[in-house]
Write a structure and sequence with these properties.
By secondary structure, this protein is an alpha/beta fold. It is built from 14 helices and 14 strands.
Amino acid sequence: MSYRILFLNWQDIKHPLGGGAEVYHQEIFKRIAARGHQVTLLCSGYPGLERTETIDGIRIIRKGGRNYFNYMVPFACRRLLAAEPYDIVVDSINKIPLFSPLYIKKIPVIAVVHHLFKTSIFRETIFPLASYVYMSEKLIRTIYGKTPFIVVSESTRQDLIKSGIREELITIIENCVDHSLYRTTGEPKSAIPLVGFLGRIKRYKSVDHLIKAFAIVKKLMPDAKLVIIGDGDNLNDLKNLAKKLHIDESVEFMGFLDKEDKIKILQKCHVVVNPSIKEGWGLTIIESNACGVPAVAADVPGLRDSVKDKETGLLYPYGDIEKCAEYIVKFLTDEPFRTEITKNATAWAAQFNWEHAAESTLEQIEKTIETYKN
């Protein structure tokens, strides 16, 4: 049976501020579309992007801007549902929920959650906006209390349970990897010790911790280099920090790169680091592992799901700059250790396949539709 799916998300895969969540949705729903299902994504617009287009079989409808998209969604949804028949709405809860159960009444809703910010949002933005996000997340229990959830990690599942969502409503479907792109090459690593960071440049990602840790690494390994791949509103602050610590000549800010260029650099790294205060899963870590690169990461929700400590990488207490630096040096100097962990990390990443994730997501969609009918 073919389903008509309306998917709600703040951004699409082409949006410059898109991240792991957009990769997750694109990879899964393009596979669902390829199986003959009709998928429409309603998201915010961005200058230079078409109002409507089709990418990988997914019809994308862009409405309004990112700053006020949540206010437009109820009206846009009603118009779409009045004009076209749909079988289900998939609601991606990301920062500020879209609260679709309030205005979607005649068809079922299933929610997808990568992670809840909770108090970590106060590190990301100014107090009034952080409070708005924090209080919006508090309403999830009330508004989505009967809604089935898909989450990407055990950490996020536990967060939802603590927020009052019943366990039986939650299904875990992890982030995966496109193994045709993210893979080992057999070619040698960089001739100089190379440390990488891959992801959006946001305050809660705590990339400043990595730069401070790298300043310690540089004292022990003067020829080491750090590459930071990604863009975001915290970029200038990080550049200024690197200058202040006198390591700016050894830190290269690559900005946003397309997949091919990003992967080429990633494959040359000896280790990647994720110092974030919280993640849903840690997609960039699994992508790095698939390229034969182990990870050092903060021991926080999400990252402790994607990194198996002392098996596929090393976890350090969040904010412990010295320990982060120690672990980076360990990977750069202890080749037998790095070789063993890299082998484990590559095997770990091989388990995560988008085809399986798409199949599991479609099963949850079918189950939700059938339960709603009965």
